[in-house]
Amino acid sequence: MEKFLEIILDHNKIWFGLIFIGSVLNAVSQELVVLNQVPYLSLISFLTGFVIGLVAHIRGKWLWV
Amino acid sequence: MVMGVDIKDAVSEEFSFEKEKAVAKKYAQRFQWEMILIGIGQACVWLSLWPLVMFGIIPLWLGFVVACFCACMAYLPSHEAQHGNYSRGDPKKRWIDALVGHITLITVMFPYEILRVTHMKHHAYTNHDDKDPDFLTSNAKSVKEVILLSLDGTSPDYQKYKEVYSSDAAFQKAFEKGVKVSLAYRLTLMSLVFLFPLQTLLLWWLPAKIGVLYTTLFFSYYPHIGTEIGRYKNTRFWQHWMPRYINHSMQLHFVHHLHPNIGHYDEPKAIEELKPFLIARGVPGAEEIPDRVTYNPLVKI
Fold it and tell me: What pLDDT score was predicted for residue A13?
């Protein structure tokens, strides 16, 4: 259990990107009328969040500090 | 010796450390009820925003503005708790420190125990590049750097300081407690954002970021610009265009580093009386301290 938790925490930026950024992007995109016709909007939103998190995980930082 | 510095050097008996301490002690007695009110009060206001926004009683943008204000007010009550300024050494009142310390920090999603132990190390090793957990932000090169560091969220690198203080059992124990709280915050945030994405973003995550940025800028960066290592040299008196109630009177932060037990709202009076001691000790900027610290004497345009 502890090992499992450790693995999850080691990848916290990826999880944050996928769940937090993905959820926010999904909610924002649903509000934007111009994106109404775009297929797989939720999938694209969560995928974008995941990629942002993955890049941050690889870089070790979110921003260019 | 205090914090590795010989406090007896080159100062006349009139301004001795013992006399300075006696003056400071007078202002380190009062019960800090205002801080408790601010800490618990802002947390309650912040919590009430959720149902108010969810049920459409107030718009989300208004909730965001109020949440940002709450987040900016969140740290200081916890800071007093970190120094035990509610219990003032009375073991029966320690629960007040813990209660206020934990509750007020919910708004900014920070674990009290981690902040408490790292803040104690900041006091003990201010401006030591390898031991001061605030070193990165308090010695940043510019406001822009502080903004980037705060928003990035990877500063201070708490994991690094867990390793630096690996032989300090009390530090490790408190840190472990804090990690659990931090994890609980993370899980709550992730659950909430999945259910209420925009509300979680604008009522919690973004206000917390703004609150942490505000705190880092005024509590950590400005008071330590250009300062050195040493009890009387590691924090400065500074002036700012902003009226002091908007930046939590952090122009006076140096007296907190000298005597952390002085209550925040008692610092102006303490400084008035301590001014000759501070000048004698060469505290950076001490000559510019006004004789009377009234409502807004610290503004400099």
Answer: 93
Total number of domains in chain A:
1
Residues of B in contact with A9 (CB under 8 A): 183
pLDDT of residue B301: 41
A7 in contact with B, Cβ within 8 Å: no
The answer to ipTM > 0.85 is: yes
Domain span at A25: 2-59
pLDDT attached to residue B4: 47
Q: Tell me whether residue A21 is in a domain.
A: yes
Q: Is B194 on the interface with A (CB under 8 A)?
A: yes
Count the neighbouring beta carbons within 10 Å of the beta carbon of residue B277.
Answer: 23
pTM, rounded to two decimals: 0.89
pLDDT at B8: 52
CA distance A26 to A48: 10
Contact B190 A19 (CB under 8 A): yes
Cβ–Cβ below 8 Å for B152 and A19: no
- Whether A12 maps to a domain, the answer reads yes
- Flag whether A65 is in a domain: no
B193, A23: Cβ pair inside 8 Å? yes
Closest-CA distance, B194 to chain A, in angstroms, reads 6
Express each pLDDT in A25-63 by its tens digit.
Answer: 999 999 998 888 889 999 999 999 999 999 999 998 898
Min Cα distance A55 → chain B (Å) is: 14
Asked whether residue A51 is assigned to any structural domain, the reply reads yes
